[in-house]
Design a protein that fits this description.
Layout (H helix, E strand, L loop, with lengths): L2 H9 L15 H11 L11 E5 L7 E4 L2 E3 L5 E3 L8 E2 L24 H8 L5 E6 L4 H8 L1 H10 L1 H22 L6 E5 L3 E2 L2 E2 L3 H21 L3 E5 L8 H6 L4 E3 L8 H8 L4 E6 L4 H4 L2 H15 L5 E5 L9 H12 L2
Parallel strand pairs: 1-6, 6-7, 7-10, 10-11, 11-12, 12-13
Antiparallel strand pairs: 2-3, 3-4, 4-5, 8-9
């Protein structure tokens, strides 16, 4: 089997020849691994995925020292967080919503480089990725406080804002699905460590109807659907399964019992993640790391339905020897 075949088998809940895996790094973690193991440490990682940016392929630009502006006009202070950054402007208010212009998607050059990238990697599983796809796009544009408070105090504005984002996303999905991709991944963090950030009733009112349209648009084109949502959001799993979700990520063991989730939902939902980035990789030993990864492969990976990975891009406080131990187990299945 190649990696594309492994992922397809896993998503059919069939046992592949080995559990597919995908490892992502933050910049500090990558730099620590290079310092410890040299620049060629990543040569044999063999991630199962190839991804393309399906949301707004235009480049970011630096508008001030340490301040990067994304294609939506959102400015990110990278001096505070060197990987993602911290939003430091407001692009949309209730008064300016109708005048706001989303990034252009009809530029024929948007996917030229991505199309070649996919063609050059036919053995990997191809994913079109829309990060910050709905709730996250809303709060980055209008402000977290505005969006969360608006769900209670000004729901009409939040519905209009989310509808405009949905319109953009449906066009982006349509264009991405014209490429040789296997799946669409939507990034949209709804959770915190203790539960759903806006509460399940508000999620069902504001988020669920719109992701139903997004998932259906991908499904009509024969694509699998992935969601990345950090935090304790397992209360939403029955809703997500009913909407046709195929794969849930990041599957954080710090906020949910991953083995219980597999037992309860593993016949209807696949999981991607599960390796602890808050406990094991930063604070465990190499042997503890090996034991955790082996157990995940043996139990969560049984009968398919699993893509092994750290529960998020590996953070800078992860110990290089633990990262190496994780890679050793994954690569020697």
């Amino acid at each position: 089997m190649n990696n594309r075949e492994r992922v397809r088998a896993a998503l059919r809940h069939e046992q592949p020849d080995r559990v597919p895996y995908a490892i992502g790094f933050t910049t500090p973690a990558w730099e620590k691994m290079v310092a410890c193991y040299g620049p060629d440490f990543s040569a044999g990682i063999d991630n199962c995925f190839i991804g393309i940016n399906a949301g707004a392929p235009q480049p970011w630009r630096e508008v001030a020292p340490g301040i990067m502006e994304d294609p939506f006009g959102v400015q990110w202070n990278k001096k505070v967080d060197t990987d993602i950054g911290v939003v430091c402007n407001v692009c949309i208010t209730e008064e300016t919503l109708e005048d706001y212009c989303f990034p252009a998607l009809d530029d024929p050059t948007n996917f030229q480089e991505a199309e070649q990238y996919l063609q050059n990697n036919p053995d990997q599983y191809h994913i079109g990725d829309i990060g910050f796809s709905l709730f996250e796009r809303a709060w980055t544009l209008a402000g977290m406080e505005t969006v969360l408070m608006g769900m209670v105090a000004d729901p009409a504005f939040i519905h209009r804002l989310l509808d405009r984002i949905l319109e953009f996303n449906l066009a982006a999905i349509d264009r991405a699905c014209a490429q040789d991709i296997d799946a669409m991944m939507f990034g949209d963090d709804w959770g915190q460590q203790t539960g759903v950030m806006m509460g399940v009733p508000h999620w069902r009112e504001f988020i669920k109807p719109r992701i139903a349209e997004m998932y259906a648009a991908a499904k009509r084109r024969g694509k699998a659907v992935f969601i990345h949502s950090c935090g304790k959001v397992d209360a939403l799993f029955p809703d997500l399964i009913a909407l046709g979700l195929d794969v849930f990520n990041p599957f954080q063991p710090e906020v949910m019992d991953v083995y219980d989730m597999k037992a309860r939902y593993g016949d209807r939902l696949s999981f991607f993640g599960g390796i602890s980035t808050q406990r094991t990789l930063p604070y465990g030993t190499p042997e503890e790391t090996r034991d955790e990864v082996r157990r995940l492969l043996d139990i969560i990976g049984k009968d398919g339905g699993y893509i092994a990975a750290p529960a998020h891009s590996i953070p800078g406080d992860a110990r290089p020897e633990n990262i190496a131990a994780m890679l050793e187990v994954l690569q020697t299945q």
